[in-house]
Amino acid sequence: MSRKGDGWPLRQWMDERMARWQLRAANELGHSPWVRGRPLLKNLGFLRIGSNFKLGSSPGQSHIVVERRGRALIGDRVTISFGAAIHCRCELTIGNDCEIGPFSVIHDSDFHVAGQRDAYDEPAPVRIADRVKLGSRVTVMRGTSIGEGATVLSGSVVAGQIDAGSVVGGVPARPLGSGLEGNGTSDLVGLVTRVLGLQTPPALDDGPGQIPAWDSLGSLKLLLALEEAYEVSIHQEAMKNATSVAALSAIVERASQARGARWVAHGSQ
Questions:
Q1: What is the mean pLDDT of residues 79-91?
Q2: pTM, whole model, 2 decimals?
């Protein structure tokens, strides 16, 4: 066996010992932790960290702060990238197998009350279920609940309830796979009405044959407006084959799903 192989158990042991020292503020810490860089941990309440925990803190320092009466629970096989800021005043839970991207912010308090300079707001629990993936620079607001297997795209701000298995993005974050259901359909009709300069909103089955303004130039205007409004990429060929407003809805739906799939594939590399 090579010398590198002989030395690996010792290096692994030293890395774990260093990680345990850097995470010593935790009340409970599972086996095989790994830390890169020098994170800031401040625990005045209760902090539990599960097994196979990975915390990046370089090139940007990560912060985990639990205040008095705060209770923060981090599950097994959780990876938190560098520059993260996690703050708990009441209750914060991160489930098993979660991935938290660089410079993400998770907190159960807004730290202030609007119009009251010296007042603190009432904190609300944050719950992140198993197998959730947060992209880079995601902000999770107080009172948020993210369902199992959900994916939050980079740069998003998350508040409220996020359904299990959904892909969400934007400010505020909204489902990308179902963005045109319900009120989204009327939003699309309104977009078509505005972009094509129509006097009355079109029906869902109206298309180029019923809307004279929906010519080649109108199609290009719609493509650009849809890409901006729904933050997707749409091929011109797809627009050429759009025969109705309802078809536009399906095009945006597929583009949203493709965007989410690309992000998940990129994040798993």
A1: 95
A2: 0.65
